[in-house]
Amino acid sequence: MISIPFPFGLARVFAVCILFALGASAHAQTDPLPSWKDGPAKQAIVEFVQATTTQGNPNFVPPAERIATFDQDGTLWVSHPMYTQVMYCLERVPAVVKAKPELKNVEPFKTVLPGNREAMAKLSMKDLEKILAATLTGMSVETFNAEVRKWLETAKDPRWKRPYTELTYLPMQEVLKYLRANGYKTYIVTGGGQDFVRVYSEQTYGIPPEQVVGTAGGTKYGYGKDGKPFLTKEPRMLLNDDSAGKPEGIHLMIGRRPYAAFGNSTGDRQMLEYTKAGDGARLAMLVLHDDGKREYAYGPAQGLPDTKVGTYPQALYDQAKKQGWTVISMKNDWKRIFAFEQ
Amino acid sequence: MISIPFPFGLARVFAVCILFALGASAHAQTDPLPSWKDGPAKQAIVEFVQATTTQGNPNFVPPAERIATFDQDGTLWVSHPMYTQVMYCLERVPAVVKAKPELKNVEPFKTVLPGNREAMAKLSMKDLEKILAATLTGMSVETFNAEVRKWLETAKDPRWKRPYTELTYLPMQEVLKYLRANGYKTYIVTGGGQDFVRVYSEQTYGIPPEQVVGTAGGTKYGYGKDGKPFLTKEPRMLLNDDSAGKPEGIHLMIGRRPYAAFGNSTGDRQMLEYTKAGDGARLAMLVLHDDGKREYAYGPAQGLPDTKVGTYPQALYDQAKKQGWTVISMKNDWKRIFAFEQ
User: Fold this and answer.
1) What is the ipTM of this complex?
2) In principle, which of A91, B89, B161, B326 could form an S-S bond with B135, CB 3.0–4.6 Å?
């Protein structure tokens, strides 16, 4: 073996390290958003990330402050024609009635029990609230988590015949990863139930439960027969994480104004405004559901307000254009919508 | 220059990498808790970390689930004879009265205004609440943060004549760092104001604002004269993060049961019980203020209940012994209490 003086060996180590670093850098320059077509939406994301993560750029953001928030329903996954969590609640009704047979002939449980989707779609908000209370509260947090996990394993979306967790938008998954690779902490900020989304957020989006902000009810601390303490989910609203509740929820749960926010409906308006109103470079993006073939077309894409499904009226589209938010057209900006498509 | 075949150079790189790795490993074996005396408290911490972070150990915890929660007042820093946040509120009164001169002759502001600490100590809870509401709410979150930051720069503890943020316990700072170095996410779970603690948590404890859970009021979303949105702090309680409110707050803000929890008072009882009741290895620790010379002695150390200052009665000490929590004696377990001591 040839003996090499240590400094020389060390120099070689550094040289190889530099090669590795260059390799890593070249890798970082491969397209981080391959499911996005070139266009203003993709460009806005890439320019925002470059500006806020490049040392010396006037819009540089220190890593600790890099917060990005994402609405879930209609922004990260399909929410049309019905929110997944509502599907969960409706499909849990048979189990609830089995446990409490006295509900069998009581409305709205009687209507929902046969699994008639058309009848379900006609439920009043008051009836729906009764079903939500019966299926989302009254049990321990561990029992609830186990019930949701079990349901997600077998439940399927009626159109795609796939688990709901496969109906996430591939281009948005790429944005989540791209932001995280650039030091951003990604949060879900959903009008949906915080506890519901937390069950699958890590596996589905790479977002840990503590980075899910959602509509949240109170819990009650108590002791079981074995003397062990546990928390029971209560039908008492703590945070209605929708509309003005979104920036309020962001302050409560995160305590910093996001640098980037993504939404798709009127319920996201205040979060987008609040984000965009901060100093420096801020990214506000609004997903437009205008692809009736590959997904759905509703809202301004059809010239129709459709608040029921969580999308937005023309007025929000106009506000986006006026305030410098970037509209994402599913039809024109996304090459692929789902990972399972080839 | 001698040409070296690439594989040989690469082997050398790996060899050096292994040396570096060994060096890192040797470094990790230096004492992570130098301000702790050898004894059951230090041993409990080290054994817990080794058990939960060693692959193959029956109590191994995946990194994503490693959550540790710390009470602040009396656990991470001095809270005797008065909570620092209460000092802030009392010392803000002159500025509040300057902005609203009509309060000058109104109680309790009239009593507090001359800065008489003895008179302040005698305020009723109702009077204190009026002062808290006047100094902690009614302004934008940005204004509040700026006011707290400014106060912290000049305010000093009357005994040590040092900024309050220097009165953190060095041994607990070491525990925070030791847990983080082992993949634990460290949280503050305080009965104090969430927004107050968030102002200095990152600089003082290395804990970012989003990892501070505390007593929290609501905020209200609105628009300034310039049309820009902002949040106003409201005198409306969302989370009373004390006693049963601590596990409830942990569920709301984190969504996972901690593996380790640290407290010092009756207000921490439920957090410690809840943590200890989880499966596998769980660490529950209770700081005992028994060092009248270097800090203060109160609570069971004096055989006196003293709930006013956030410590605990004999009953909690007894529960700790019974349920396998580890008591930390400041007098016997800590070599040094503050970083500024030599």
Assistant:
1) 0.89
2) B89
